[in-house]
Q: What sequence folds into this?
């Protein structure tokens, strides 16, 4: 079994102020685990061999501290993360808890907190005891009767009893009975270990105080852990503390003992599922660390841990991190593309679409409970902002290249200007011919540059100053010819200005089309994510309903009609709440709102461009209207 950690580490302990705290080093280790986690926690009275079982589950002979004295060895909660032996791509997190009822500590509240944390953090809870499951053993599990006071499901209605909701969150339960020497028989008939457990948890009829005290812990176990199993160890726990099993006189005993413990490990591996939050969201090592920190901080503050609040806090942390992760994916890819700037707009847009889709995938993988689409919208807005910045950088690089091309092509002309080559009769026509040659060569070399038309427009405007001086100095031309040539030049500049604006419009439409496709891809991924969340929600609802129906049937079979009637009420209430929490309508609204926002943004951009184009056309018309009539036909 490959280990993520060489040895166990302290996960939760008690600080100098007497309050529980999470070890930062353990949190850092969990942060590195991106895989789903199966969390197995073992609880039980101190000095009952819990640590030995955890070592065996880790596939090791040693690791968690063992002891052979009456002193409890484990303090707080210790953690060991290993690769799951039967579930590929999954991490097995083993939590060894401090023994309950430690006489040295003598703090029942501390024991309750440790037990509550084990329940909150695990997907499978192993309760370890010795002997048989008699009334004393059940009473020793008194901590389960306090769960309703120590854990809340919902933050609202603080005085309301929401213990029936615990089934959605609580782990599966395995009662491991050590040093078991009884035959598995009831009324002379062979029974399974699970049937033995159910027999031990059987309720008594009656309303006397003794019957109520007898039934209460059993009712709590049945309510909080509807998925429960039993495993019995027929061999003495004392064998576990021997330094070497090979030192036993009987090799058969040691071999059989190992077989039993190995069978227990396989039993746990098979029965343990991946840890999930409400609505079926998978818990990773990172999420487990956040949950532990939230629960421990709440307990240390004197408040009662609330499952709903923990999930909400977790959703905020994970969704904010998901936005950052998505942006990092997008930005790192665009930074690589940036090294190739300047590029054609279609190449930048194509890579933007690809990276936007990849970033959304990264976001979807990590996010959960983004019910109003707030965080996806934040990702989308930040990606659009970054896209605009990269487009601007590409334009700057394109502008620089275009200016360099023009500078190189116009160098001979600039030399002639300095030498006064054009200040002679016919010089204006020579200047215009050189300018025309430069323009042709430039269009050939810079035709795919995003700033080609705009830079040429600026270049022609700049050269119009030199052109005006050369035109006025040309003695070969009459005043009327000078006016006509001047208007021709203005028309050419205006034509280039229109070409530049048309190119901007074309680029805007290309950008809008790219963003439209990116938005459609985001909506597709969002729908897939929502469909998956709804599927998990339905599966969870079906699982809870199945457990409640089985519990109701069991109560009816045992003739506890009053309790069965209460269970019927719980079932009806669960159906009502599940119908109210159906998110299909919410998801449809999110998709529609996102689509509407995108259409509004595109419409606004198009309106701005239309206003710019209309303004430019009006300026062109005004220039024509203001010209003398004999020059209008030339234009």
A:
């Amino acid at each position: 079994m490959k280990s993520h950690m060489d040895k166990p580490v302290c996960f939760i302990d008690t600080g100098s102020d007497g309050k529980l705290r999470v070890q930062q080093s353990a949190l850092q280790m969990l942060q590195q685990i991106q895989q789903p986690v199966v969390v197995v926690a073992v609880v039980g009275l101190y000095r009952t061999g819990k640590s030995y079982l955890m070592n065996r589950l880790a596939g090791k002979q040693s690791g968690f501290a063992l002891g052979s004295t009456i002193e409890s060895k484990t303090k707080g909660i210790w953690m060991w993360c290993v690769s799951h032996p039967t579930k590929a791509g999954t991490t097995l997190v083993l939590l060894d808890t401090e023994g309950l009822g430690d006489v040295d500590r003598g703090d029942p509240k501390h024991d309750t907190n440790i037990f509550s944390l084990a329940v909150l953090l695990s997907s499978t809870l192993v309760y370890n005891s010795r002997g048989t499951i008699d009334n004393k053993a059940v009473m020793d599990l008194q901590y389960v009767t306090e769960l309703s006071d120590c854990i809340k499901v919902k933050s609202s209605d603080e005085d309301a009893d929401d213990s029936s909701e615990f089934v959605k969150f609580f782990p599966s339960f395995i009662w491991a009975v050590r040093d078991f020497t009884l035959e598995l028989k009831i009324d002379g008939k062979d029974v399974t270990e699970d049937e033995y457990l159910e027999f031990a948890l059987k309720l008594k009829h009656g309303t006397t105080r003794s019957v109520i005290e007898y039934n209460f812990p059993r009712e709590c176990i049945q309510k909080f852990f509807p998925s429960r199993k039993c495993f019995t160890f027929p061999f003495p726990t004392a064998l576990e503390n021997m330094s070497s099993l090979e030192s036993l006189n009987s090799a058969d005993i040691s071999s059989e003992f190992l077989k039993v413990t190995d069978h227990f490990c396989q039993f746990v591996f098979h029965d343990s599922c991946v840890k999930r939050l409400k609505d079926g969201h998978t818990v990773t090592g990172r999420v487990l660390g956040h949950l532990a920190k939230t629960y421990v901080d709440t307990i240390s503050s004197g408040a009662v841990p609330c499952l709903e609040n923990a999930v909400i806090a977790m959703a905020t942390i994970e969704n904010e991190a998901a936005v950052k992760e998505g942006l990092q994916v997008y930005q790192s890819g665009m930074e690589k593309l940036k090294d190739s700037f300047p590029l054609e707009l279609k190449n930048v847009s194509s890579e933007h679409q690809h990276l936007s889709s990849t970033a959304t995938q990264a976001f979807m993988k990590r996010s959960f409970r983004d019910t109003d689409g707030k965080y996806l919208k934040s990702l989308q807005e930040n990606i659009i902002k970054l896209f605009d910045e990269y487009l601007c950088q590409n334009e700057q690089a394109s502008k620089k290249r275009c200016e360099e091309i023009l500078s190189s092509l116009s160098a001979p002309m600039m030399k002639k200007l300095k030498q006064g080559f054009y200040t002679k009769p016919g010089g204006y026509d020579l200047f215009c011919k050189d300018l025309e040659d430069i323009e042709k060569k430039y269009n050939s070399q810079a035709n795919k540059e995003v700033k080609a038309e705009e830079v040429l427009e600026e270049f022609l405007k700049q050269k119009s100053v030199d052109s005006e001086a050369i035109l006025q100095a040309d003695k070969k031309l009459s005043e009327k010819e000078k006016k006509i040539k001047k208007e021709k030049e203005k028309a050419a500049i205006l034509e280039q200005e229109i070409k530049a604006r048309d190119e901007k419009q074309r680029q805007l439409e290309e950008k809008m089309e790219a963003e439209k496709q990116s938005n459609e891809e985001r909506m597709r991924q969002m729908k897939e994510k929502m469909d998956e969340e709804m599927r998990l929600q339905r599966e969870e609802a079906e699982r809870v309903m199945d457990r409640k129906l089985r519990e109701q049937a069991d109560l009816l079979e045992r003739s506890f009609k009053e309790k069965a009637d209460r269970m019927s009420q719980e079932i009806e209430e669960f159906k009502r709440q599940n119908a109210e929490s159906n998110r299909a309508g919410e998801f449809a609204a999110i998709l529609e709102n996102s689509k509407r926002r995108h259409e509004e943004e595109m419409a606004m951009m198009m309106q701005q461009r239309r206003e710019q184009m209309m303004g430019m056309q009006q300026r062109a018309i005004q220039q024509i209207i203001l010209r003398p009539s004999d020059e209008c036909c030339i234009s």
Remarks:
- The mean pLDDT is 82.
- Residues 9-153+161-292 form a domain with the Rossmann fold fold (CATH 3.40.50.300).
- The longest strand covers residues 37-44.
- The two ends are 85 Å apart (CA to CA).
